[in-house]
Design a protein that fits this description.
Blueprint (H helix, E strand, L loop, with lengths): L5 H13 L14 E6 L4 E6 L4 E6 L4 E6 L5 E8 L3 E9 L4 E7 L6 E6 L6 E6 L4 E6 L4 E7 L5 E6 L5 E6 L4 E6 L4 E7 L4 E6 L5 E6 L4 E6 L4 E6 L7 E4 L5 E6 L4 E6 L4 E6 L5 E6 L5 E6 L4 E6 L4 E7 L4 E7 L6
Antiparallel strand pairs: 1-2, 1-28, 2-3, 4-5, 5-6, 6-7, 8-9, 9-10, 10-11, 12-13, 13-14, 14-15, 16-17, 17-18, 18-19, 20-21, 21-22, 22-23, 24-25, 25-26, 26-27
Length: 335
């Protein structure tokens, strides 16, 4: 279902072009690799978009989030566990399509959100809910390099500024966010925002942090300069995950309760469109073309490709049971 007008599509295409990305078709992101963490089937699915070939690998019990290195060679899946807390990362060779290493994080249990540090192909930042830390992990050496305290339980998702200097985490039961200094490996500050803050995304320039409240059905836009909530988007059902485009132009909010994704203008801090009739959208990753979103659908165990300008679901791929985290990267070995 498309909740969008043709005129609005033309306006958004021009908006994307003004932000530095040509208004190209969704085919521009139809090559490369998608990696999906399948929570209930203890697996991860690799999709080669150019050939539509799929490979599903066993990775460990309770995989939640996924990340792909900037060069497209490595995938990382966080093994969160189920009743028994997990404490490992599965490292995947995306060219060979196999798990090459399982990294034991030791005391840093319940790993969840994960992102490669900007410009690095071997270093990832991972939230550890149970230990109230973000751990910095060298996947090549297979070890934890450092741990930065968030000072709050349930540090779930994270966002990193494009310059690689700041990390922001959502802290679910506390209802707020934490800022960390990535260079100095220090806690900087925290801010109470709204109840049950789970989804979080930071604008590439670090000016705003977008935070979803599962129980209030709102997204709060926090200005980092004033360290305060500057705007609140309401009526969103359950804003479970948030993604911001690489050019900082738009935010995509996944709403599994409303079976929709909502698209917001980061500058005006307003919802500018939605795509409905989706099968419980969970995870989201916006491609470098700034208009193609890869979204996992929990209700039918698929990952979809959505054109954010045309507001259409282009295609879906079957994956494992209860897909959650998703990442996209260029094909291994491609420049």
């Amino acid at each position: 279902m498309r909740i969008w007008s043709h005129a609005a599509s033309v306006v958004l295409a021009a908006f994307i072009a003004a932000r530095g990305a040509a208004p190209q078709s969704a085919q521009s992101a139809q090559s490369g690799t998608v990696l999906v963490a399948n929570q209930q089937s203890a697996s991860a699915t690799i999709i080669d978009l150019a050939t539509r070939a799929e490979t599903t690998l066993d990775v460990g019990v309770g995989p939640h989030e996924a990340a792909i290195s900037p060069d497209g060679r490595w995938g990382v899946v966080t093994i969160y566990g189920t009743q028994t807390p997990g404490n490992t990362l599965a490292v995947i060779d995306l060219a060979a399509k196999k798990v090459t290493r399982t990294i034991d994080l030791g005391e840093y249990r319940r790993p969840h959100g994960a992102m490669f540090l900007p410009g690095s192909t071997t270093t990832v930042a991972v939230t550890s809910e149970a230990s109230q830390n973000v751990v910095i992990v060298d996947i090549s050496a297979g070890k934890v390099l450092s741990a930065i305290p968030t000072r709050h339980p349930g540090s779930h998702m994270l966002g990193i500024t494009a310059d690689g200097k700041h990390i922001f985490t959502s802290n679910v039961p506390w209802g707020g966010i934490t800022e960390l200094d990535l260079e100095g490996k220090n806690f900087v500050r925290d801010l109470a925002v709204a109840p049950m803050t789970e989804g979080v995304a930071v604008a590439p320039d670090g000016a705003t942090v977008w935070v979803g409240s599962n129980s209030a059905g709102t997204v709060s836009v926090v200005e980092t300069k004033t360290w305060s909530v500057a705007a609140t988007l309401s009526g969103l059902g359950m804003p479970y995950r948030i993604g911001i485009s690489p050019n900082g132009g738009i935010a995509v909010i996944c709403d599994p309760q409303g079976n929709a994704i909502h698209i917001a203008d980061v500058s005006s801090r307003k919802i500018i469109g939605s795509v409905g009739s989706l099968a419980s959208p969970r995870g989201v990753f916006i491609a470098p073309d700034n208009r193609t979103a890869f979204v996992t659908f929990g209700a039918d165990n698929t990952v979809g490709v959505i054109d954010l300008v045309e507001r259409t679901l282009k295609t879906k791929f079957p994956v494992g049971t209860s897909p959650d985290g998703v990442a996209y990267g260029r094909a291994p070995g491609k420049s």
